[in-house]
Amino acid sequence: MGKPRLLEQVRARIRVKHYSLRTEQAYVEWIRRFILFHGKRHPMEIRAIQR
Question: For the whole model, what pTM was predicted?
């Protein structure tokens, strides 16, 4: 099995930090929108293009 997907990693990190469920949902939604806005590219790909 491979590395967890980005949003799964975000959820796991937020849960470790004991953020509220509503905060988790908001963060995941903002990240999802960011990815969709940039043509479904992974944020690491976007970062590489900007440099």
Answer: 0.75
